[in-house]
Design brief:
It is a single chain. The chain is α/β, with parallel strands linked by helices and about 150 residues long. It has one domain: P-loop containing nucleotide triphosphate hydrolases (Rossmann fold, 3-Layer(aba) Sandwich). It is built from five helices and seven strands; from the N terminus they run βαβαββααβββα. It is globular.
């Protein structure tokens, strides 16, 4: 497990941009944290780092927003499970269908009954007096990619 201090939203987005080149189809990133912790900012950075030039909204209401080439380097499903109340709704999302073909960025993953073993777990929390602390728990699938040099030299 490793921790990184992110002083503000811009640093959180920059972290996401630096993480983007490491993503591969089939990767799953689970983002834990309270409301306002920076999960969507980090996802915004990942998507911009993958080449998306537009606004990146929170998928709180649609629950899943997909991004496909040529807008991004690889297919990505940005998922926000905050509003999911019934476990039956999770099956309807078809997250298993994306595995292998797309990268998954999942906000509020604690709503899932399980996480896939290859999931990179990122937790964001307040880091007083300012900023956030990001704690990463990389799975074996990430052992050659974590910690990425461009993220540890800040």
């Amino acid at each position: 497990m490793s921790a990184i201090h992110l002083p503000d939203a811009a640093a959180t987005e920059a972290f996401g941009r630096a993480l983007a080149p490491l993503l591969r189809p089939g990767d799953i990133i689970a983002l834990f944290g309270t409301l306002g912790a920076g999960k969507t900012s980090l996802c915004r950075g990942v998507l911009h780092g993958l080449g998306f030039a537009g606004d990146v909204p929170s998928p709180s209401f649609p629950i899943v927003i997909t991004y496909d080439p040529p807008e991004v380097r690889l297919p990505v499903w940005h998922v926000d499970l905050y509003r999911v109340e019934d476990p039956g709704e999770l099956e309807e999302l078809g997250l298993d269908d994306a595995l292998g073909a797309a990268a998954l960025l999942i906000e509020w993953p604690e709503r899932l009954p399980f996480l896939w073993p290859e999931t990179l777990r990122l937790s964001l929390e307040a880091d007083p007096p300012s900023g956030r602390r990001l704690t990463a728990t990389p799975p074996p699938a990430w052992e050659r990619r974590w910690p990425p040099p461009q993220l540890t030299t800040r």
